[in-house]
Specification:
single chain; rod-shaped
Amino acid sequence: MALLNGFGKEEYPNNDSYEGAFKRGARHGSGTYYHFDGSRYEGQFEEGMMEGTGKYFNSENEVYEGEWHNSQRHGHGQFTYHDGTIYDGKWQADLRHGQGLMRYADGSVFSGNWANDRRHGQGQMTFADGGQYQGSWAEDQRHGYGSLKLQNASTYDGEFNNDIPEGKGTLYDADERSQYAGEFKAGLRSGEGKCEYLKNNDKFVGQWLMGARAQGLMFCADGQVEKVGFLNDKLIRREKLPLEQQERLKAEANGETYVAPAAPVPEPVAAPEPEPVAVAALSPAAAEEERRASKASADSKGQPRSGSKQSQTPSRADAGSKAGATGPPEAVPA
């Protein structure tokens, strides 16, 4: 039997058929391959394999249009799914692999990297409700670091594990009007964390359990710092701390080094003035006796002491003798 060359038509035992170009008996060039289940391929062939560019219609009303290699989708192509979802991007060995854009039937859109038919690597997802996620993916789930913005304007930036927030991250809760930074578990605030409440400017720092505060410190808007405890996020204990401890905690919370205030220097105290000594008043008799004693003491001081020179003041007799030696004798009264 002669080998087909050029345009021809061939039917196969499994009820498939081909119509198109042949080369030495093999499908080669442009043609259409019909499957028995109603699906078909329209495009290029090379040595009997789908190769180059072509369009494939399957039995589920899905369509692929793009590049082929060894009868597999390979290179760039667009696949339209039966529900209206459209993938436009890279393929490898019949799987989505590389950069691609997926428009889902519900209006969601993913743009990013694919690996082995799954979202894997960096990518951005816009959800049907308006929420957005941008970050790392692994095995078709959000995994690693990413940023999530919800429809109500709440935002989460941090670590994901198996499609949910877990690890360290920050959360702005638009409904609660709070800003949280700390640990997450199973998508909830759990572990060590701090939360600032924008309604009243209070700040809680401490332990969280499954989305609720457990115990820690409350930095109040009025400057007070309290030690608090919660049960099911309801305040059950509060303790006011010493002032110096409050100041230290506030400095540490702001990333500052606390310096204790210096002890005040005491002011010098003036020595008290001596009080006047009260002198008891003397009786008249005692006063007179004291006066006489003072006079007697003065008179005794005026007398010449024994063995001392006589007083330089001449007596009346000396004065008279001295006068007689120089003047006439004094008349003697009869």
